[in-house]
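Box 4.2: Ligand-aware structure prediction
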Amino acid sequence: MKTLYLPAADTQTAHTAAEIIKSGGLVAIPTETVYGLGANGLDENAVLKIFEAKGRPQDNPLILHISDPAEIERYCHHIPKAAFDLAEAFWPGPLTIVLPAKSIVPKRTTAGLTTVGIRCPDCTVTREIIRLAGVPIAAPSANISGKPSTTTAQHVLHDHDGRIDAVVDGGPSRVGVESTIVDLTEERPRLLRPGGIGPEQLMEVLGDLIVDKAVTAQIDKDDVVKAPGMKYKHYAPQSEVVIVGGSREKAAEYIRHHFEPGDRVLCFEEELPLYESCNPLSYGQEADVSTLSAGLFAALRELDDPSIHQVYARCPVGGGVAYAVQNRLKKAAAFHIIDAEEEE
Ligand code: TXA
Ligand code: MG
């Protein structure tokens, strides 16, 4: 199959993409978080193609993308006020809300759950595609399962050229990490995945928030978790990743001491001079954490190279989107973290 390349700026793009979606095909769509691998979320056969293309386990549900917050009521019921409050505050934007699903949503999409994740993305061309298609677009991150997410059309083509119908190029994703997921199907709101909307921002609207254990700890295959995707290996390059915490100086001391030829250092731009002899790769500026979230997955993809033995990674501290960057890096490192302040 030839994968159509559709630039977002081209006036025909939304129509062409919407036609492919309507006819049951796969279109990679840009969003402000990461690129998604999209199909008609109400069509079981179309949705099945997503799982096949990604190599995604079928017990891992997909989220539905809508073009307008009002569409939430087409696909969900028993919607609590908190959902409307979150939608009002953060949509269109990097937030997915998990709610009870109406029966119109196929079990293939929800992986058999009675709930569904919904998101209205902050990306004009993608909302236009959804509107023209007249159906919600089910879309996981467009990476091959287990690999770092896709934040450019080039990443998508790297993983799927010739295996999907089209990719819409909307330029690099602005946020760079996937959406924040909040589950509103229990008594108390629960954070299932940190993302572009920080926990502090959620608290301001919700006044209450439980952080799911899948966010803060390694989850085993047999653990029962609210977000089924959390138990799978994620974001990991082929090399071993270890996070080195502590002050800039202590971390540099530790890393330079342990560094061996064939290793790499993933650091902040401000730290590059400290690692001149260690083949460093910067993923953004520590002083501007939005550059770190935007650059993280491209960097992890560059480090996805079997010739690299060990990656020493520096991780930002703090809340907001830094909390999401910490979460993704910890998962890439399988929670392997060293505190350079405590090392000799
Ligand atoms: O930013 C994003 O959310 C991107 C873009 C394309 O919108 N999409 C994305 O989808 O990250 P995916 O499939 O890679 O991650 C969605 C996560 C998975 O871990 C999945 O298990 C979880 O959301 N999820 C989906 N539906 C759920 C549900 N009903 N209950 C709990 N977790 C759910
Ligand atoms: Mg994903």
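In the box above, the bound molecule is magnesium ion. The chain has two domains: 4-216, 240-342.
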